[in-house]
Amino acid sequence: MPRKLEYTMTYSATCAEVFAMMSNEEYVGLKITGTGGSDPDIEISHVGSDVIVVAGRTLPAEVPTIAKRITGDSIRVHETARWSPADEFGARTAAVELIFEKTPGKAIGTLNLHPVGDEGCAVDVDFTVRAPVPLIGGKLEDVITHQMTRAVRQENKIGVQWLADHGITEA
User: Fold this and answer.
1) What is the DSSP string of the chain?
2) Residue 64's pLDDT band (boundaries 50, 70, 90)?
3) Which of 95, 104, 111 shows the shortest CA–CA distance to 136?
4) Taking the CB of residue 114, how many other CB atoms lie within 10 A of it?
5) Residue pLDDT, tens place only, 131-146
6) Quick check: 152 and 163 in contact, CB under 8 A?
């Protein structure tokens, strides 16, 4: 049965400032390495009024022993986020897909960036994780969901620090 990941990242910055960060190649690379990834491969492009952020990374395969026969010691993850244009409040949504090479696992979801209060914003993270593998699929989904939750929490900390380091907010 698929697993759900829901989390809210908060920032003391405007939606425009946080979106500029999330679509910045330097930040995306820092996010990848700061959440345990290596070998970042990042491409940011514009299609019409959408912004597409594609990021690949290699992660240690923290999976059950039986699954390591398939994955080896590492897993290459490909993430694609397609951001909509901002509305009049600066809010925007990204449709996101994460593909885990050499596995049937994938995560599909959304990031909803929206204002909160006078000078802050939040990013609501909502993903469904699937690993349709007989017998061990549920365990793989649990592992992937746990690792993604840990990574999202760390990503929030990295983002807060990045905004402070760039003079947008205080740490």
Assistant:
1) --EEEEEEEEESS-HHHHHHHHT-HHHHHHHHHHTT-EEEEEEEEEETTEEEEEEEEEEE--S-HHHHHHHTTEEEEEEEEEEPPP-TTS-EEEEEEEEETTSS-EEEEEEEEEEETTTEEEEEEEEEEE---TTTHHHHHHHHHHHHHHHHHHHHHHHHHHHHHTTSS--
2) low
3) 104
4) 15
5) 888 887 888 888 889 9
6) no
Maximum separation of any 2 CA atoms in the chain, in Å: 51
Lateral strand order in the sheet of 74-83? 3-11, 120-130, 106-116, 92-100, 74-83, 50-60, 38-47
pLDDT of residue 95: 98
Does the predicted TM-score (pTM) go above 0.85? yes
Long-range pairs for 26-30: beta carbons < 8 A, 24 or more residues apart: 27/159, 27/162, 28/53, 28/55, 30/158, 30/162
Whose tokens are 């990374």? That residue is 57
Under DSSP, the state recorded for 78 is: E
Query: Whose structure tokens read 């026969």?
Result: 69
Report the relative pairing of strands 38-47 and 50-60 from DSSP bridges.
Answer: antiparallel
